TrEMBL record:
Pfam families: SBP_bac_3. Belongs to the bacterial solute-binding protein 3 family. This is Amino acid ABC transporter substrate-binding protein. Residues 33-262 form the Solute-binding protein family 3/N-terminal domain. Keywords: Signal, Transport. Gene3D superfamilies: Periplasmic binding protein-like II. It comes from Lutimaribacter marinistellae. The keyword Signal applies. Residues 1-22 form the signal peptide.
Amino acid sequence: MKKSVFLGAVTVAGLAAGAAAAATIDDVKARGKLNCGVTTGLVGFAAPDSNGEWKGFDVAVCRAVAAAVLGDPTAVEFVPTTGKTRFTALASGEIDMLARNTTWTFSRDVDLKFEFTGINYYDGQGFMIPKSLGVSSAKELDGATVCIQTGTTTELNLADFFRANNISYEPVPIETNAEAQQQYLAGACDVYTTDASGLAATRATFENPGDHVLLPEIISKEPLGPLVRHGDHEWGDVVRWTLNALIAAEELGVTSANIDEMAAGTNNPEVNRLLGTEGTLGEMLGLDKDWAMRAIKVGGNYGEVFARNIGEETPIGLARGLNAQWTDGGLLYAPPFR
Ligand SMILES: N[C@@H](CCC(=O)N[C@@H](CS)C(=O)NCC(=O)O)C(=O)O
């Protein structure tokens, strides 16, 4: 088991070294389309709607980048990836970036040779159980069968948690969230464990969400964010600062409702630099002066994107929590636009 994981990592790292030679920003511009890796479907984060149009919190990052670089938020080819296939897709060049509930870890950065360009959701791993199981703490799960998505951080966290608490479990390995949902609802596993946001998103699609509970334990740190290949610095900058533009826009009070007015010039120099009425930040990125304005216009600032896709007014119902701005006691903190 250990050996195959190790060999998998080497193969992916080898591919990354080869593909990183090309400048992705030039490829994307020449192609006129962004190839963005997303999940195979997790409503609220990335999933096609009834018209086949991809929607969600991670999808919004892809569309913002496409708007910044190509001037068109619809110029995106969404490439579904599983926990297992996502890294090969990025390393091989099949996708230009990955925006898929992916945790920034040491080994993915250093060993697999990717570059995380920020964090769009601070998360942690949780457990969902049917209420009827009558369990109120993950520590009471001794002997449980647990649905667990392969190729994810959640596999190792699960093993660590059970070992540390001296309890045992039987893993039921699954490949996609859809499969997990199906197995869990069919009773093939007592528990589903993954990122808490993913559990909330999955539960929201159940016929009777109220029959299922999330246990209080959060057993890991899962900082989720977009990533590119190592060594692809210009492209990494574009993705990093597009995400930062959405976050800064919220902090600076730039919204989809007032952005046109603000783009005419304000008395806040940072807003002016962000929206391109002062300075040359867009040019430094290899883009034009309106890049950030276009990115923000797609779905609004970070807070608007959050509220529309996964926030408390949606069936998923996530509170801002750690994902509030630093000015509101959260962890979101975009570096300065200067
Ligand atoms: N954040 C963890 C877990 C990511 C993960 O695969 N999450 C699942 C459940 S939230 C998911 O996004 N599934 C969507 C799919 O199967 O395509 C990681 O990076 O390994």
